[in-house]
User: Fold this.
Amino acid sequence: SAPFRADGGIRPVRAYLRSGADAAARNWPGAPLIVMTHLHVEGGLGGAESERRVLIGGEEAIPLSDFPDETAYVALGHLHRPQTLKGAPLARYPGPLIPLSLDEARHEQSVSLLTFEEGAPRPTLEILPLPRPRAFHRAPERGALAPDAAIAALERLAASLSRDPDAAAWPPFIDVALRLSQPEPDLRRRVEAALGAAPALLARIRRSAAEGPIGAAETLRRAAPSAAPPTPRAVFEALHQARFDAPPSAALRRAFDRIAAAAAEATEAQEAPQEMTAPQPASSAAAPKARA
Assistant:
């Protein structure tokens, strides 16, 4: 089984689940055992844009056989695709209540209803679909667009939504994917201006840089061609070249220099030794009183 941190140490998942089942049997004898857990179980299918994969090759997944034999149902979280796993015990990923990425827009959101019959070893599972009043739009539907093309697509979408009575009642979520060839600090304002007063909820702006011809290792090598450590300015220029396949503009270099200088001054001020003022001892003699 995959390792799992619990009780201050590393324990197998199987042993951890077994201890939980034993505790449930002691506290609620005779009650059906329902396990709720957030992890990747073997056989579960993830999405391309939903789950952040921590390990490669499914090494983080555990088998259903790790759950105790008396488990009646496993309510799973982590994978966003709604699915009932094959095998025993009965286990299901219900998925989120609303789409959280483009590939989830095609999923049918639902909740799971379990019915336990007296004497039956396992419950029956009924999947109840959830209505989705808000639509989910992505501009573009696939891939990413350069800023000007994306703004034009958003303007067309905004015009269409402005004529849609359903959108007026339930403004849809908007997801924008942009491919940048240079920094665009004014990007959000342009996106919001393109949507204008259209009934829409801007959910996310995703920025992806155009792939440069060099990788991270080559970037650092170019920033520090000698054994000496690279300067912040050299690293900045090399990273900009790697990400946008172009050197930073003169205005961007000047802005970086101002920020780097301010950061260096702040660091020096924090590291400078503070002058300590010796405390003055309190006088033990009382001040003489004035005599008439």
